Amino acid sequence: MIFIKKLVFNPVQVNTYMVYDDTKECVIIDPGMSNISENQKFAAMVEKLKLKPVKVLLTHAHFDHVLGCTFVSDRYELLPEGCSDDEFILKNTKEYAAQFGFALNEAPPLLDNYFAQGDKVCFGNSTLEVIHVPGHSPGSLLYYHPESGILLSGDVLFAGSIGRSDLVGGNHKQLIDGIYDKLLTLPDTVKVYPGHGAETTILNEKSYNPFLRREVKKVIVQDEK
User: Which one of 31, 138, 149, 221 is most buried, counting C-beta atoms within 10 A?
Assistant: First the structure.
């Protein structure tokens, strides 16, 4: 069984997750801390929960999800890991952030290890499965723990929405196809922890997400025939 602690950071309200098990080994997902106060809040929570950070995982490399990578690297001697397809985004973090009005003093550290579809991330007594769904960014990864029925979806799938596909490297068709082929095929009870906003479930998104109406449209077409 794994446990999740969520903290929300920076003006874009990124969900930063601490994922851990009974061993207290912890993976940090999308460190979004953007200032000293947020760094202190994050470190205080690590201390409060008596966690031992062992990995930093990125769901993708957009600037709002990597702002805390330098702090985590300095404090815990951990470098981010993610998909090589997003490496070019990470390298240009300062430039991309400036387009959204964020002036960064330094770029985050580059990826130290790459993950792809089907890879495993091990920590403590637990293993996360890696799911690659491009479209929001080329290298968007999701982390799935089947035993606990938990999916950390980054900016691919939200409660009632999906990730935007109009940013550099985005592709709407890839995003929709990936959600249908790799996410909506998961058990209905899987709880989804997105990169922004509230948690949801696979069943909720199948039933109510207005961006995921492919089957409904097919039925309508068939009825008209």
Answer: 31
Q: What Rg, from alpha-carbon coordinates, does the chain have?
A: 17
pLDDT value of residue 218: 40
- As a whole number of angstroms, the distance between CA 33 and CA 10 comes to 6
Mean pLDDT computed over 197-211: 97
Where would I find the beta strands (DSSP E) of 69-189? 80-82, 113-114, 120-123, 126-132, 141-145, 150-154, 157-158, 161-162
User: How far is the CA of 118 from the CAs of 4, 132, 141, 170, 181, in angstroms?
Assistant: 22, 8, 11, 22, 14
pTM: 0.94
Q: What share of the chain is helix, strand, coil (3-state, %, to 5)?
A: 30, 25, 40
Residue 180: DSSP 8-state: I
Q: Are 65 and 90 in contact (CB under 8 A)?
A: no
Could you tell me the domains of the chain?
Answer: 3-224 (3.60.15.10)
- Residue 59: which of 123, 135, 148 has the closest Cα? 135
Q: From the CB of residue 160, how many other CB atoms can be counted at a distance below 10 Å?
A: 15
